[in-house]
Specification:
The structure holds two protein chains of two kinds. Chain A contains no helices and eleven strands. By secondary structure, chain A is mostly beta strands. In chain A, strands 2, 4, 5, 6, 9, 10 and 11 form a seven-stranded mixed beta sheet that branches. Chain B has no helices and nine strands. In chain B, the strands form two sheets. A five-stranded mixed beta sheet of chain B has the order 1-9-8-3-4, with no helix packed on it. Chain B has a four-stranded antiparallel beta sheet with strand order 2-7-6-5, with no helix packed on it. In chain B, 35% of the residues are buried. Classes of the chains: A mainly beta, B mainly beta. Chains A and B meet through strand 4, strand 5, strand 9 and strand 10 of A and strand 3, strand 4 and strand 8 of B.
């Protein structure tokens, strides 16, 4: 069964550095999402992306964050000037048609900011 | 967004049926009811969704109350692998790329 893959599985970065988290969504999917989950807390929506532009974003997704689909297969989340509170699991998801269709999640990247 | 209420945790025995309830009394008539689960150290996993009628798939069944103010996810024969946090999430049917709003969910414990 096709799946969403995320790399790396664990990223350790110094505070203030930039980090790029990578995702390969399911190949025929058109809608892409990033979520995060701080340890012990709820999964939180960050941003959705469709037709090469941001569709929706939450209050968390401020100017520190950006997303990109640099080619036909990858979907990236960039965090500029990381802060300690950015430490979390970051999940990528994709959906074939958006709307109420199921989202398929990767297993996440654990981001640790030192 | 419609608010949901789920028990914090439930416990069941292996190979027995499990009924996971969710109250969503403020759900809109255009909201689907989705269920996801999150196994330990994994990303959320889609389980099932429905609008008004009961739904079945290979993973589970979804029973939706006639007034749509509540629903129940049914695992017909729980296995140890079903131990996870289960989330009930209303999803607007007319949205484009709306993000999912996860609550705290129900932590399902399966006893061997």
């Amino acid at each position: 069964e096709p799946e969403v893959t995320q790399t790396p599985s664990h990223q350790v970065t110094q505070m203030g550095q930039e980090v790029i988290l990578r995702c390969v969504p399911i190949s025929n999917h058109l809608y892409f999402y990033w979520y995060r989950q701080i340890l012990g807390q709820k999964v939180e929506f960050l941003v959705s992306f469709y037709n090469n532009e941001i569709s929706e974003k939450s209050e968390i997704f401020d100017d520190q964050f950006s997303v990109e689909r640099p080619d036909g297969s990858n979907f990236t989340l960039k965090i500029r000037s990381t802060k300690l509170e950015d430490s979390a699991m970051y999940f990528c998801a994709s959906s074939e048609k958006g709307m109420y269709q199921p989202q398929h999640f990767g297993d996440g990247t654990r981001l640790s900011i030192l | 967004d419609a608010k949901t209420t789920q028990p914090n945790s439930m416990e069941s025995n292996e190979e027995e049926p499990v009924h996971l309830p969710c109250n969503h009394s403020t759900i809109s008539g255009t909201d689907y009811i989705h269920w996801y689960r999150q196994l330990p150290s994994q990303g959320p996993e889609y389980v099932i969704h429905g609008l008004t009628s009961n739904v079945n798939n290979r993973m589970a069944s979804l029973a939706i109350a006639e007034d749509r103010k509540s629903s129940t996810l049914i695992l017909h024969r729980a296995t140890l692998r079903d131990a996870a946090v289960y989330y009930c999430i209303p999803v607007y049917s007319g949205g484009g790329a709306d993000g999912l709003t996860f609550g705290k969910g129900t932590h399902l414990i399966i006893q061997p």
